[in-house]
Amino acid sequence: MEIYPTKAEGREWFINMENPTNDEIFNPQSNITRQSDGSWQISGRQTTGKYNDEVRMDVNTLKGQQEWKNVEITGYAKVVYANPPFDSLDWYARGGKHNSLVPCEGTSLKGRLTVNGTASWIKEIWHIGGYTNERGRVQATDSIIGRWIGWKVVMYNVDNDKAVKMESYVDDKDKNRWIKVTDLIDNGGWYSNYPDSVFYSANCGKPKDYIITNGGPIATFRSDNMVWDFKDLRVREIQPPT
């Protein structure tokens, strides 16, 4: 179900459930395997740093296409393995590569759902020294481990592109019945929690409470330390409500 209509001539992306990797803009960045129910399982790439089973499934933008900005990002997931309570599914957009070689590209608004069922948002002003504390934290559902749930995040500009509205929704029973669980606006005052010496070291030219009104070429389905099945991923450029 669509919460908001697709923008006129706006981009729409739907995963090809028969052959997801036969898609020039979808990059799961890890091996995926078909499951008996037709879904796909991803365990993520192994890293030597903070995280294992690092999932970063990107939906990219080709040259000449409009970037992802006012978007509705939807995906269904069944978590097979995780470490409660903090592991989470994070759908995000409004930035480019999240790489220390190009730190200022790494802006994002991340709608999170932990495996214990808490929902929240976090902002990343640059990668990796521009993270904020979370906002809008609520107990959205019970544990999501071992069952199918839908997770949907929406972000769109308001107030003549001076602020951003963020919403998230859960389909708790895998019935295509979506319930809004978070609703907040960033119009300033949501600061990075890094000290000034770190935040300004990247020289991105942004204030510590930068409002991410910009679009970006990449929308991402993310997790860390988790193995999960997925289906019916989609990203759409929406027509924001007036």
Describe the protein's architecture and organization.
The chain has about 240 residues and is an all-beta fold. It is about 0% helix and about 40% strand. It has 1 helix and 15 strands; from the N terminus they run βββββββββββββαββ. It has one helix spanning about 195-200, and strands at about 10-15, 25, 30-35, 40, 55-60, 70-80, 90-95, 110-115, 120-125, 135-140, 150-160, 165-170, 180-185, 220-225, 225-235. Strands 1, 3, 4, 6, 11, 12, 13 and 15 form an 8-stranded antiparallel β-sheet that branches. The longest helix is centred in the C-terminal third of the chain and has 4 residues, at about 195-200. The radius of gyration is 17 Å and the shape is globular.
Return the structural class. mainly beta
Oligomer: single chain
Report, as a whole number of angstroms, the end-to-end distance. Answer: 20 Å
Radius of gyration: 17 Å
Portion in helices:
under 10%
Summarize the helix and strand pattern as letters: EEEEEEEEEEEEEHEE
Largest sheet: 8 strands, antiparallel
Individual helix count: 1
Beta strand count: 15
Summarize model confidence as the mean pLDDT: 96
Shape: globular
Q: What percent of residues are in strands?
A: 35-45%
* Unreliably modeled segments: none
